[in-house]
Amino acid sequence: MINAVLVFNNSGQPRLTKFYTQLDTSVQQRLISEIFTLVSNRPASACNFLPLPPLLAPPPTFNSTTTQTTHSDLPTQITYRHYATLYFILISTSTESPLALLDLIQVFVEALDRLFNNVCELDLIFNFEAMHACLAEMVVGGVVVETRVGEVVKGVRESGKGSVSVRGKEQGGFSLAGGLGGGRGMWAGR
């Protein structure tokens, strides 16, 4: 199960925070800060998987009548990709495949790229409804329901959230499409 989807820029400003499990707001804020610090300090050559910081670890119980069991639905891992100026981060349980999560991030970015025609950070800021609708087409309640880019884009456009404002080319911005590899294959980003 996916517990959270986070998108940060290189300065640590959240562009998307979607939690699928109930957490106190203060815990969410600390978790967001810790995860950005962990991910942004990693070298480009490091792998894209991390263990979750102990912030969400269940509190120890000292009751001798209950036996401590491991729960597979507790978040345990961080999977991320860095494209141009944005970090796309998934927090999930150990039952999710990290490679499948990397593919999910890739599909999410490709869907955004199709929706915005060469997406950049400004598109995500000014059209956050379309970004949320895109994520909602892919993940419902922490469960992945769609991974076909064409179907995701079609669903967003049909919902009415696909009518995005188009930025002028003079505004510039860094395109995420360059991070998609520009014809160099899907793993050309980090």
Name the descriptors.
alpha+beta, 5 helices, disordered C terminus, about 35% helix, 5-stranded antiparallel beta sheet, two-stranded antiparallel sheet, about 190 residues
Termini distance?
23 Å
Overall strand count = 7
- Residues in helices, as a percent range: 25-40%
Q: Order of strands in the sheet with the most strands? A: 2-1-5-4-3
Q: Which structural class fits the helix and strand makeup?
A: alpha+beta
SSE pattern: EEHEEEHHHEEH
Radius of gyration: 17 Å
Explain what the structure shows.
- There is one protein chain.
- With 190 residues, this protein is of the alpha+beta class.
- The chain has helices at 25-40, 98-116, 121-126, 128-138, 149-158; strands at 2-9, 14-19, 49-51, 75-83, 86-93, 139-140, 143-144.
- A hairpin with a 2-residue loop joins strand 6 and strand 7 (143-144).
- The radius of gyration is 17 Å and the shape is globular.
Short description:
The protein is α+β, with helices and mostly antiparallel strands and 190 residues long. The protein has helices spanning 25-40, 98-116, 121-126, 128-138, 149-158, and strands spanning 2-9, 14-19, 49-51, 75-83, 86-93, 139-140, 143-144. It contains 5 helices and 7 strands.
Could you give the topology of this structure?
Elements: E1 2-9, E2 14-19, H1 25-40, E3 49-51, E4 75-83, E5 86-93, H2 98-116, H3 121-126, H4 128-138, E6 139-140, E7 143-144, H5 149-158
Antiparallel strand pairs: 1-2, 1-5, 3-4, 4-5, 6-7
